[in-house]
Design brief:
mainly alpha, Hypothetical protein af1432, 10 helices, globular
């Protein structure tokens, strides 16, 4: 039952409305109680002008309406409150939150009865939703593509871009564009080595 409710909300025109409603009515406690920790959580960083929940809702509303992308958007920062630290200057940090959130998404989605293939798709998208600070260069790009999966590259970049759109500076995509260009260059240069069924055109 909860799976259908959640799917219907995530695939609606403005899914944040439904998520906020679940929180207001108390129904979210029965579905994904972990979401409640994000409400009102001050991120204490100039990169964000919203709490974790409102940032998540901005990402959710800005991403294209496929279930795996919308679910990844909903859960991409689910473990941020658990990873929160403050440095000596009072700035908030969330080291490793993308890894922790990916792991937590598996627990949540299994609990809700989603199938293993769907869970794996969402997990990997969340794991790589924060590529901004990843040290990816031409020597590591092949490994990066293999880790993400060529068939997931477009969705992974889509989630990264939506994540940036939900931040204080919603127009700076330089870090994503840099990695996207490297992936595209690698795929073009190695297209003869890649089977047609595994190839992908990065949008």
């Amino acid at each position: 039952m909860y799976q259908k409710i959640l799917n219907d909300i995530l695939l609606s025109e403005k899914p944040s409305h439904g998520i906020y409603k679940l929180i207001e009515t108390g129904e979210m406690k029965k579905i994904i109680p972990e979401v409640l920790k994000m409400k009102g959580f001050n991120q204490q960083t100039h990169y964000h002008d919203k709490d974790v929940l409102d940032h998540t809702m901005a990402v959710l509303d800005s991403i294209k309406p496929t279930l795996k992308l919308r679910m990844a958007a909903l859960l991409h920062d689910i473990s941020k409150p658990d990873c929160f630290t403050v440095d000596e200057k009072g700035r908030g940090h969330f080291y490793g939150h993308h890894i922790k959130s990916a792991e937590q998404s598996v627990i949540i989605l299994k609990r809700l009865g989603y199938d293993d293939d769907f869970i794996q798709e969402v997990k990997i998208l969340i794991r790589y939703h924060y590529i901004k600070d990843m040290k990816i260069d031409e020597n590591r790009v092949e490994k990066f593509i293999n880790e993400v999966g060529r068939n997931r590259l477009n969705d992974m970049f889509e989630l990264n871009i939506a994540d940036i759109k939900g931040k204080a500076d919603p127009n700076n995509f330089d870090s994503v564009d840099r990695i996207k260009d490297m992936c595209l260059k690698y795929l073009r240069e190695n297209e003869t080595k890649i089977h047609c069924e595994d190839s992908i055109i990065i949008k």
